[in-house]
Amino acid sequence: MPDLTPTPDFPGLRITKPSSYAPGSADYACACGQSGHATGDTAIRALRNEYDTHRQNHAMERGAR
Ligand SMILES: [Zn+2]
């Protein structure tokens, strides 16, 4: 299986769930260098929110002035 973990050079959010019985895990990386990791459905949802909010902050920074 290729390693598709996001990096600042290849930013994004990746969620993996090996089976419906095993807890999934998620990684994200932003082009600015921030990254995060979560394990478990609840933590993954929080990580997705964190990543969405983080990207929105970038969009606001760019659009503010
Ligand atoms: Zn960022």
Strand order of the largest sheet: 1-2-3
Bound molecules: zinc ion
What is the residue-averaged pLDDT? 90
Number of strand segments: 3
Overall geometry comes to elongated
Q: Please report the number of helical segments.
A: 1
* Assembly annotation: single chain
Along the chain, the helix and strand elements come as EEEH
Largest sheet, in brief, is: 3 strands, antiparallel
Radius of gyration: 13 Å
Distance between the termini: 44 Å
- The tally of structural domains comes to 1
Low-confidence stretches: none
Percentage of residues assigned to helices: 25-40%
Overview of the structural elements:
With 65 residues, the chain is of the alpha+beta class. It has one domain. It is 37% helix and 23% strand. A three-stranded antiparallel β-sheet has the order 1-2-3, with helices on one face. Strand 2 and strand 3 form a beta hairpin. The chain is elongated. The termini are far apart. The model has no long low-confidence stretch (mean pLDDT 90). Bound molecules: zinc ion. The site of zinc ion (ZN) has 5 residues, from helix 1.
Could you give the topology of this structure?
Blueprint: E1 12-16, E2 25-29, E3 35-39, H1 41-64
Antiparallel strand pairs: 1-2, 2-3
The chain binds zinc ion.
Zinc ion (ZN) binds next to helix 1.
Task: Tell me briefly what this model is.
With 65 residues, the protein is of the alpha+beta class.
Label this structure with key terms.
binds zinc ion, elongated, alpha+beta, 37% helix, 65 residues, 1 helix, single chain, 23% strand
